[in-house]
């Protein structure tokens, strides 16, 4: 399978405030009653959105690609349905203070980059996106920067993840398959106790 | 970096390669699957023309979506029926063992694998479910994965994963009567927070932990993920070996296996990335009052004021007061509950049901409260019925159900309605978790849930024992 290198994402941003936003909130369990991921985009944050004003509902953020979140985003359930729902809604990159590990791994498997930055930068970005929702942002994976027309911020990402996105090898399956002999050797070694 | 811990030893034994980006290609000894996070993985295999490399290393069951009232097939819920049929077909097509309803061994995936002796010390275990950390109770390195990774494990029996740091969590001393493993882990998460474990494996040790039976250890390891740690484990000891010895899948060359397992335990001079200690005597029955498992207090405490919390926790606390309808400064004891749920991969095992039944014995569920018990597996249900526990529960006015994940995540008909408050022995009190967008969950031990059921309120189980 050929994979696309993901080096740069440009688009409008969407601020979503709050720590510890879990995957049950991103996609409630009733939407896991399915055997494909199709159609999940429509249900992203379904319950939160039904409560009233929510950035994913607001007209100024329709079509946004870059989600800006706070700490421990994506905690809880391992459901890949969560990043699938975000991706299918249109999100192509997530910037936050920190991410739950399983969620971050699931994002990478879809080619959805997650990068971290300081709480101060996140707050600044969220304020800017609230004041000026139409401003474009560019996330440069190779340079590890996020830039607006008038400013650039540094962002962080594990080097291996960065490389795999830039080189288009983020779909781990092919790499894992390539080491078939080493897998069989490990299995044989473990069987001996 | 840690050195000489069980985590390090097991990781190194299972390392297949270092991938170009620096991640480890880790061999997965045991892969567990269920109906909710596997169908898309099999679809991806088919799309890519891949087969399952070691079908005998994957084991399946059905748990998340199964009804717990009427398990007659076809299910009344046609979507649930479709999901189960999809799993049945996938298992048949790829040669995977499925413990289906009626097999005698169906149940919550994290309950049945230990019961069957599939979970063993020194293994690496993965499952498309975040509570896979449960299996760490046996000294396994076990963690949850997403569906694309389920595909990877099916196709290659390996995962691309970054190495974790190791935090030693030492709990020493005796717990007071009425204080359980659930209280220990809720206390740990309350103290360290829900983000502290990100990037870590948790090693639970100390006299309290090693005094626990295997089911209590599973309860602790199960909720590692609620503290942010993808995996948590306990070094294997005689209690581990005694639990495993007669299980159907226990190794045949038993002495040799035990000898190997002993060598995998953390060395006395192992180096950890971090160490924290707790005093068991200081732990009270613990209840969550908020919307994360870290928002917990002793049953004899009051809901904290914002000023008592660290600044970074205040926004979430304010959100929690509003959602939960609790007032800072008020005691949590006495808060009325409407639904009481005993079950889940955290607390749906036989010892959990025994403790709950001890409280329910000779008492009655308060009128207007819905209380139900969902055994974690067919084996747990059988055992409980042999002991007559179901009669204790039924006589007290609890419903006695069939095994499944049930109202822990409410993918089946077991759901809260509206703003109902539940006392729940499960693991997550997230907004909307139990099936109603406004439903409210209070996490606690199974005995505390039983106490809530027979008083209609959050109650201190120590006064009922």
Describe the structure.
The complex is a heterodimer of chains A (193) and B (465). By secondary structure, chain A is of the alpha/beta class. Chain A has a single domain (8-191), classed as Aconitase, domain 4, CATH 3.20.19. Helix content of chain A is 35%, strand content 16%. Chain A has eight helices and seven strands; from the N terminus they run E-H-H-E-H-E-H-E-H-E-E-E-H-H-H. Chain A has a seven-stranded mixed sheet. Chain A starts with 7 loop residues before the first strand and ends with a helix. The model of chain A has no long low-confidence stretch (mean pLDDT 95). By secondary structure, chain B is an alpha/beta fold. Chain B has helices at 6-14, 39-48, 78-94, 109-115, 147-156, 181-192, 207-211, 214-222, 238-244, 254-264, 314-324, 344-347, 350-360, 378-386, 389-396, 446-455, and strands spanning 15-18, 24-27, 30-33, 58-61, 97-99, 124-127, 141-144, 158-161, 165-172, 200-205, 231-233, 274-279, 286-288, 296-298, 339-342, 370-373, 399-400, 421-424, 440-443. Chain B has a five-stranded parallel sheet with strand order 5-4-3-6-7, covered by helices on one side. A five-stranded parallel sheet of chain B has the order 17-16-15-18-19. The longest helix of chain B is centred in the first third of the chain and has 17 residues, at 78-94. Chain B is globular, with a radius of gyration of 21 Å. Classes of the chains: A alpha/beta (193), B alpha/beta (465). The interface between A and B is large, with 59 and 76 residues.
Task: Kindly list the characteristics that best describe this protein.
heterodimer, A: 193 residues, alpha/beta, Aconitase, domain 4, 7-stranded mixed β-sheet, 8 helices, globular, B: 465 residues, Aconitase, domain 3, Aconitase, Domain 2, 3 domains, 5-stranded parallel β-sheet, 32% helix
Structure, briefly:
The complex is a heterodimer of chains A (193) and B (465). Chain A has 193 residues and is of the alpha/beta class.
């Amino acid at each position: 399978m050929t994979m696309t290198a993901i080096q740069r994402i440009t688009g409008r941003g969407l601020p979503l405030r709050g720590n510890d936003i879990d995957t049950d909130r991103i996609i409630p369990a009733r939407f896991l009653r399915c055997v494909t991921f199709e159609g999940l985009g429509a249900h992203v944050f379904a319950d939160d959105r039904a409560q009233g004003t929510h950035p994913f509902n607001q007209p100024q953020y329709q079509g946004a690609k870059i989600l800006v979140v706070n700490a421990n985003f994506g905690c809880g359930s391992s459901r890949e349905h969560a990043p699938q729902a975000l991706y299918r809604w249109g999100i192509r990159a997530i910037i936050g203070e920190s991410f739950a590990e399983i969620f971050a791994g699931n994002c990478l498997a879809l080619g959805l980059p997650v990068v971290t930055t300081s709480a101060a930068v996140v707050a600044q970005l969220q304020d800017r996106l609230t004041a000026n929702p139409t401003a474009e942002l560019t996330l440069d994976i190779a340079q590890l920067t996020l830039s607006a027309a008038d400013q650039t911020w540094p962002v962080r990402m594990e080097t291996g993840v960065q490389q795999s996105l830039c080189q288009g090898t983020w779909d781990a399956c092919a790499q894992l398959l390539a080491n078939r002999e080493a897998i069989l050797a490990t299995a044989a070694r473990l069987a001996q106790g | 970096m840690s050195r000489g811990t069980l985590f390090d030893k097991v990781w190194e034994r299972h390392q297949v390669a270092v991938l170009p980006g620096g991640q480890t290609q880790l061999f997965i000894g045991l892969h567990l699957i269920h109906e909710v996070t596997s169908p898309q993985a099999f679809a991806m295999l088919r799309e890519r023309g891949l087969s399952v490399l070691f079908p005998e290393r994957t084991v399946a069951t059905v748990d998340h979506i199964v009804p717990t009232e009427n398990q007659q097939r076809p299910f009344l819920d046609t979507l649930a029926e479709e999901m189960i049929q999809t799993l049945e077909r996938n298992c048949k097509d790829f040669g995977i063992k499925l413990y289906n309803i009626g097999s005698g061994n169906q149940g919550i995936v994290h309950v049945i694998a230990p019961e069957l002796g599939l979970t063993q010390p020194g293994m690496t275990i993965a499952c498309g479910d975040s509570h896979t950390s449960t299996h760490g109770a046996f000294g396994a390195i076990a963690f949850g994965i997403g569906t694309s990774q389920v595909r990877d494990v099916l196709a290659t029996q390996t995962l691309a994963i970054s190495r974790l740091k190791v935090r030693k969590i030492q709990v020493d001393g005796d717990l007071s009567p009425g204080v359980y493993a659930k209280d220990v882990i809720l206390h740990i998460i309350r103290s360290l927070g829900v983000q502290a474990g990100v990037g870590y494996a948790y090693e639970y040790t100390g006299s309290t932990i090693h005094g626990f039976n295997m089911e209590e250890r599973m309860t602790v390891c199960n909720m590692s993920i609620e503290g942010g740690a993808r995996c948590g484990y306990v070094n294997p000891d005689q209690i581990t070996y005694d639990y495993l010895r007669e299980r159907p899948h226990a190794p045949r060359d038993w002495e040799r296996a035990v000898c190997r397992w002993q060598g995998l335990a953390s060395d006395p001079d192992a180096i950890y990335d971090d160490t924290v200690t707790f005093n068991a005597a200081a732990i009270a029955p613990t209840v969550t009052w908020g919307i994360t498992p870290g928002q917990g207090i002793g049953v004899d405490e009051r809901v904290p004021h914002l000023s008592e919390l660290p600044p970074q926790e205040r926004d979430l606390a304010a959100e929690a007061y509003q959602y939960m309808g609790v007032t800072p400064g008020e005691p949590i004891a006495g808060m009325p509950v409407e639904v009481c749920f005993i079950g889940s991969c955290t607390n749906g095992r036989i010892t959990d049901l025994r403790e709950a039944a001890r409280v329910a014995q000779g008492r009655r569920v308060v009128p207007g409260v819905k209380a139900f018990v969902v055994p974690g597996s067919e084996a747990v249900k059988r055992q409980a019925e042999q002991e007559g526990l179901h009669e204790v529960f039924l006589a007290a006015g609890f419903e006695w159900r069939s095994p499944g994940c049930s109202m822990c995540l409410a993918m089946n008909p077991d759901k809260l309605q509206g703003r109902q408050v539940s006392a729940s022995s499960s693991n997550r009190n997230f907004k909307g978790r139990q099936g109603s967008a406004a439903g409210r969950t209070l996490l606690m031990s199974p005995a505390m849930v039983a106490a809530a059921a027979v008083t209609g309120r959050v109650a201190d189980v120590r006064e009922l024992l």
